[in-house]
């Protein structure tokens, strides 16, 4: 007898949900913990999966034929009302989804205090059942936190600030797993980059539920990006020589300038690799104008790396991902 069997009590009987039980509802959705009595017409407006299911003969009508449910959906009746069993979905998660559909103030796509479990439930279930408006809102919301352009990425809050009721740092892996399951490619570069900013040991421990291929892409992309960032940093002394006597003040800044303690800058991750950081901490013996010039040069390299970012993680380029996001917004 294994531990699970020993701990298993009598089978739990799902009970009607406190709010999501409309007496005049005409379909019951059953999960492991809750029953929801709602209206077929409203579900059908929001979800193509339910719309298609209710259009099938014998489905969602009185006296349904057993064994004719759609994928993952078993059909019975509950007190004379057709009942759809949502196989594999947690009651709490379905409650989040239905509340987002039935209560206009339950979820706002601008509210970064929305709990992480609500965000994840909405993303996964809106995808599974094609609740298009919910899915669109949640993807737009997440795309602000995991943006596609460098300016927005650079303006993000620090990883130790709060997001979705947790520290930002504690959201990345959960959201990456959800985005992979929901196949939302537009979020993946930002999420994979955010998840790259951890030790290999931590990454392995946080990705146990992910496929080996997803882990390979994350580690591989992280390593390649780190190599490119750090090779560029190592090449900075050589680059200085190329500028010769370019000082706008007529001084010999670049012939006397030097980068100090570059070994202290390596290994550097993409997030920390900015012109301002490199020049402020490591460049000596140049005037203010030459400093600004070097900041621009280094930030130019940062931008070039960003332009290629999706390819590090085996994803299509930004233009395709931007078009995919536009298609989601316009769907
Ligand atoms: Zn100068």
From TrEMBL:
BTB domain residues: 25-55
Superkingdom, natural source: Eukaryota
InterPro entries per record: BTB/POZ_dom (IPR000210), SKP1/BTB/POZ_sf (IPR011333)
Identification of the protein by name: BTB domain-containing protein
Organism: Schizopora paradoxa
